[in-house]
Amino acid sequence: MVTIVVADDHKIVREGLIRLLEAREDFTVIGEAANGDEAVALVMEKRPDIVLMDINMPKLSGIDATRQLGKAGCQSKILVLSMHESRAYVEEVLRAGASGYVVKNSASTDVHNAIDAIQSGASYLSPAITQQVVDAIARPGDGGPSGVSMLTEREREVLELIAEGLSSREIASELGVSLKTIDSHRSNLMDKLDIHKVSGLVRFAIRAGLIEA
Amino acid sequence: MVTIVVADDHKIVREGLIRLLEAREDFTVIGEAANGDEAVALVMEKRPDIVLMDINMPKLSGIDATRQLGKAGCQSKILVLSMHESRAYVEEVLRAGASGYVVKNSASTDVHNAIDAIQSGASYLSPAITQQVVDAIARPGDGGPSGVSMLTEREREVLELIAEGLSSREIASELGVSLKTIDSHRSNLMDKLDIHKVSGLVRFAIRAGLIEA
DNA sequence: CCATTATTAGGAGTAAACCCCTAAAACGCA
DNA sequence: TGCGTTTTAGGGGTTTACTCCTAATAATGG
To answer: Among A7, B1, B101, B200, which residue's Cβ finds the most Cβ atoms within 10 Å?
Structure first.
């Protein structure tokens, strides 16, 4: 019997997931959490085999919760449930110590398969994701760490301020440097990310978790 | 027997919802859609009693889909499922012609109750929502309609394209009007929202669910 | 029928964004 | 010590964005 804890901030989604899980007779849900804090506490207490963890949760994100459980030496395998298919997310989730990544746009059988896989010690990535990871590896140019990690500290800082709505002049004054310097950083980070519009930068910054929407 | 169509862009959520609905023997799900366009087509074809519609969907949002169905004279009652509890959303959803508004953080029984209610011609709002609506009615002048609902159809459209990264020129060509027209819409919507930068518009559009991050 | 609003369009101008270059000082690293 | 990277800074240019005006047409609503 595989014991499972479900963490998702939407009760109705949680209920649906539990039904989907318990359609398998060898799965049993022994607890549910509505945010990251609750999830960590519950998992430490119940020690389930599997944690089905949503990424977007208040207080503590699913990624941070995963990270904390890892540091605490928790043996439960974590299967992250996400609505994002972007490479950046997958990287971060796996780095945080999760054993699997399933997009919400999956069939219930995918979740079953994922649990079977990580229960036996393997990793599991949604079919939709595997392709992206393969693409990322195949592409050497921007291949490495996608996005934020290819930026320097300063560029990240500038990007954040741009996304927060400051003009280049305001950023220059904020950081105590010349307008032209910000212009350089701006150009450089735009080249690195291959995003050449403010709108794109904002969305990137949000996806990357640099700022909140 | 109450016939239902479920529209949500996440397959796994859709599956969960269907299970929750079919736990009631007098409910039967006769179709499912993964985006707004599909939903409209499917509902026009199948003519269900109820449409359980998510707001955040690609191509055509649940709100726009609701609006289209209303204009087409569709008799199906629409129950909107949303993760947002903000007043602005509820306003717009009801204005679009939906019969009910249920937040995702509800129990399945709430959805059952909502369907019973709107099936008998009533409206249904999640408990979490009712208070907000009452508040909004109580002080009409104060906050006013905050956000999206104060924009016109065209302004919303332009905002969406701005947030998606199109330049004014591209938007003009996309919508088949003059650059100056887009400039007008842009100015007007910026005045209405009191947001005067692209970065702010993008974040607003994301918060408002007009686009995805 | 009149008032308001939505949609369209333009003129004219300032500010900002964005693109092309170069280049110096500082830093770690091999 | 030299090499790459980061951070700094600038010159000069084109293109958008943004603001301030006006104004015609159509539709909506009291």
So the answer is: A7
CB of A105 within 8 Å of any CB in chain B? yes
**Nearest residue of A to residue B202, measured between CA atoms:** A199
pLDDT at A140: 34
Question: Is B164 within 8 Å of chain A by CB?
Answer: yes
Give the number of beta-carbon pairs within 8 Å between A and B: 108
Helices assigned H by DSSP within B11-107: 11-22, 36-46, 62-71, 87-96
Average pLDDT over residues B101-106: 84
Judge if the beta carbon of A178 is closer than 7 A to nucleic acid strand D.
Answer: yes
Residues A130 and A151 in one domain: no
Considering the domain architecture, whether residues A51 and A109 belong to the same structural domain is answered as yes
Cβ neighbours of B203 in A, within 8 Å: 163, 165, 202, 206, 211, 213
Distance in angstroms (rounded) separating the CA atoms of residues B46 and B49: 9
Mean pLDDT confidence for A103-116: 84
B144 Cβ partners below 8 Å, 6+ apart?
B150
CA of A161 to C1' of D17 (A): 19
Residues B134, B155: one domain? no
Average pLDDT value for residue range B172-199: 90
Query: How does pLDDT run across B69-97, given as a tens digit for each residue?
Result: 877 778 888 998 887 766 556 766 776 77
Interface touch B107/A207, C-beta < 8 Å: no
The residue segments making up the domain with residue B104 are 2-138
pTM of the model: 0.49
Q: Average pLDDT of A40-67?
A: 87
Q: State the Cα–Cα distance between residues A154 and A175, nearest whole angstrom.
A: 10
A83: contact with B, CB 8 A cutoff? yes
The predicted structure's pLDDT at residue B87: 57
Give the tokens for residue B197. Answer: 């930068």
